[in-house]
Amino acid sequence: MLGMSIREVSQALRDGRVSATELCRKCINQIQRTLYLNAFITITEETAMEQAQRTDNRLRTGKPLGYVPPFNATVVQKLLDQGAVLVGKTNLDEFAMGAGSTDGVFGPVRNPWSYTSLYREQSTEDPDSDWAITGGSSGGSAAAVASLSSFLALGSDTGGSTRNPGSLCGVVALKPTYSLLSRHGLIPLVNSMDVPGIMTRSVHDAATVLRILQGRDERDSTTVQAPSTPPSLPEHFDIRDICVGIPKEYHAPGLSKDTLAQWSRVADMFEQAGARVQEVSLPHTQHSIVCYHVLCCCEVASNMACFDGLEYGHCSKVDSSTDAMYATTRHEGFNSVVRRRILSGNYFLLKSNYKRYFVKAQQMRRLIAEDFKNVFRSGIDVLLTPTTLSDAARYSDFIQEDNQTRSAQEDVFTQPVNMAGLPAVTVPTALSHRGLPIGLQLIGQTLQDWKLLTVAQWMEQKVNFPIIHLHGESNERELNRSVSQKTRASNKYIHNLNKE
């Protein structure tokens, strides 16, 4: 049941073959069985069962739910209005700043594929130290979907934060066109690039969720009216009408042999099926990492300014002076990754540096966006690229490098899309020789998300990605016990906050 798609399980609910409460209980049980992944920081079991009961009542009576919480992000509210059940809040890097979901206050998230027999056969070290990362920053969401604990999850995508973990965890991750989904309720990282991302186990499911979430929102002035689309993705699609571009600049240093092999295999697959496949050039890609870093830090410095201990956020007990209180509050309230970006952003925005860094970065961003426009004007329908340089790194190896370096490396293929505001989706294609997922990215034209997903579904049907089978529960009980203690602590902390 948990391995079904959203479409299949929705039909089962309508047919009465399963109840919402029964399905919710299965998801909650699966979360409990996979606590060792550290994907969830809060399990809303009581709320989930209440919502599931209301869904059962609605299915029996045919009446809408009518449930309106005090405040929800628009994308969350739209899902609840359609009968979705919230099973929990997932783990992520602090303020979504990270590339591995290893820098959160609730500890790192573990990749579910680290607990498959195939990965374990390749591993020679202790299972408790040899697990792979999920990618970031929305790693908890990706792990929840990949481990069959939920049918869909949301994240935020500023430079690849849903596509990166989607690729490493073997799930579909969609970054819609900027402005197609409301950002109301999303804590801002980079206002001009942030997009709510969708994670599911199939492209069709991602399209289903997109239809629910897209469209104008009076609480977000950047949103636009969603274009008219068919009721669902076509089951059969003639790929011969499509031209696929292969950006030559994406043959980046550090690209693994496994990823390169899958990129070539899928490109050949398109060509053999009759699609036109041609090499294209995005000449300013080489400058995108530096450009993104400057713009990201500048907007982070601006957005994080409100967390000063007086208006919002943690407040230090140090009160010797206002400056001392501010300094101590922000040191205690932010980890080193967030503090580094704030400091860098303030430096770039100094009057003496503003034109040298921020203005030049904005100019380069325009050139990067023009590169994409020129390629699409030439007749290209979609671009096929890697999503990440390689499969998921081992946690013990990943933490050896600083976060800035890791983020620059892991987002090399994804962050140009955010700077251009384009839609992109990562689709799992195969397992590496280590037994870990490899995903490839398709990039589409502005507001042509449906066309992008149509091509992605065709690709998904051809690659035949395997279903996850988690390893036995040896070594998992101890891990669950440790993570469960953290979960209970976080639940108590959030409960006390709500009481206040």
UniProtKB/TrEMBL annotation:
Domain Amidase residues, every copy: 66-453
Stated name of the protein: Glutamyl-tRNA(Gln) amidotransferase subunit A, mitochondrial
Quaternary structure, from the entry: Subunit of the heterotrimeric GatCAB amidotransferase (AdT) complex, composed of A (QRSL1), B (GATB) and C (GATC) subunits.
Subcellular location: Mitochondrion
Catalytic reaction list: L-glutamyl-tRNA(Gln) + L-glutamine + ATP + H2O = L-glutaminyl-tRNA(Gln) + L-glutamate + ADP + phosphate + H(+)
Top-rank EC class of the record's enzyme: ligase
Function, as annotated: Allows the formation of correctly charged Gln-tRNA(Gln) through the transamidation of misacylated Glu-tRNA(Gln) in the mitochondria. The reaction takes place in the presence of glutamine and ATP through an activated gamma-phospho-Glu-tRNA(Gln).
Bias (Polar residues): 481-490
Recorded GO CC terms: glutamyl-tRNA(Gln) amidotransferase complex; mitochondrion
Entry annotation: catalytic residues: S137 (charge relay system), S161 (acyl-ester intermediate)
Molecular-function GO term, any one: ATP binding
Chain residue ranges for the region called Disordered: 479-500
Family assignment from sequence similarity: Belongs to the amidase family. GatA subfamily.
Gene Ontology terms describing biological process: glutaminyl-tRNAGln biosynthesis via transamidation; mitochondrial translation
Keywords annotated in UniProt: ATP-binding, Ligase, Mitochondrion, Nucleotide-binding, Protein biosynthesis
EC number(s) stated in the UniProt entry for this protein: 6.3.5.7
Classification via InterPro entries: Amidase, Amidase_dom, AS_sf, GatA
Superkingdom of the source species: Eukaryota
